[in-house]
Amino acid sequence: MNNLIRKPQISSEQRNHKYGYYGFTQNPFPFDPSVIPGSDDKRNNGTLFYEGMREQEMNDFKEKLVKSPNRIGILMDYAAYKGRGIGKTALLNHVKTIINSDLGLRISDGQEVLYSIYLSPNSSDGNNRSMSRMAHSLYDAMVNERLLFIAFCRLRAFSGGISDELLTELSEDDYESSIADDKWLTEHGADLPRINNYLVEKLYSIGFLEGSPSYRLSFGYKDFLNAISSFHSEMEWSKKGLQLIFNKLVLLFKEAAFSNCIILLDEVEKIVQYQNFSERRAFCDDLRFYFIDGNTENSAEGFFKILITIHPNSQELLMPHWMAAGLERFCELGGSGAKESTIFFKPMKDDINLIKDFVKIYLDNSRSNKSDSVEPFTDDALLLALRKSDNIAGKFLKMLYFAVENGIANQWKTIGTDKIEELTRDVIKKTDDGKSGDTPLDRTITEL
Fold first, then answer.
1. Residue 282 neighbours by CB distance under 10 Å
2. CA-CA to 169 of 20 to 30 Å: which in 146, 285, 368, 383?
3. What separation in angstroms does the CA of 141 have from each of 135, 145, 163, 203, 225?
4. At CB < 8 A and 24+ separation, what contacts does 208-213 make?
5. Beta bridge partners of 118
6. Residue from 404, 390, 353, 311 nearest 43 by CA
7. Is-contact 417 382, C-beta < 8 A?
8. 303-326 pLDDT per residue, tens
């Protein structure tokens, strides 16, 4: 057969059939324990999250950023020296999901209307080495995380062209087919011209549109986006992007009756370690200018807040520039006052009940029949695996992944401490030149 048209001869169901040995539909644990936002696999997209394991961090986020006047917060990763995979990205994505699912109703105790966007620099390609170069990424996050879409829908709801009865009936699960759809609005008796012209007038008043407001028969979400940004090059974004975000968009979001938007800036080391001296100083100066006391709408309103994920090595690189910019007065990067604005993210606790609840979330996601047990693991095996993994979530999940694979291959009915010890001996096995062994188990766990 011509390989150009050859197709796989095994389905994903057949490939995963072996996991039926433990009553699973797949390996419950991720092969690559990193969060991939947007993935359809719950093991990787941050959906499987146990709040009980991060109760302190969740409470700190609420008290030090949501309910606090702090505009800049720090998420300090104290496991950086032990390896990656502590779970900070999973926490950030979980926080974002909680906030955006009900516009901050739960996390603000019903007091605020909030939104959150997650931003992680791509790499060392230079595109995110300054705040101005991050402008386009920030805007794309607002589009992709649906902040601008929700703002569009809220402005339509506040236009006076939709009856209170109809607004009450709206399903929060499908705005695209209701309030964002002109046909649906017309069929349900809404005053579409009033709605459209309300939005047009708001955009004119903020400065998104020039000239005099003109009557619009149609003004949908695409028209809304086109009016907000017409930049065609990275050069334009670099020159005008921050003014768009921290001035005009602040005014727009306030018109849509949002209280705050919290930017979750992950993996700042990807920015800091590739910056030169001048770029680090400019980065800190811009943080103060756009978030604290510069001549911007955001500094005046405090609409955008930012949580910066940082590691001890990045902290050392930033410290002199942070102090030179005067940011210590508003958010200490170290010292006794840091606790007021810093969320300290530490390795997992040696609490067997928390560990079991954490593992059950993964097991239940892949069980054919739900169970309250952690079978095929014993409690002691889970505790040992965590300790052997330096209490780092990513290493722990990786260890359990290989425990399941080896258990099926060797027909272990129960995975106890003896099996974890056996796996660990394979992991720490050294070759003659002192490097890790050459099995996938050796390479993956030791390099996490």
1. 19
2. 146
3. 10, 6, 32, 21, 13
4. 208/248, 208/252
5. 264
6. 404
7. no
8. 999 999 988 878 889 999 999 999
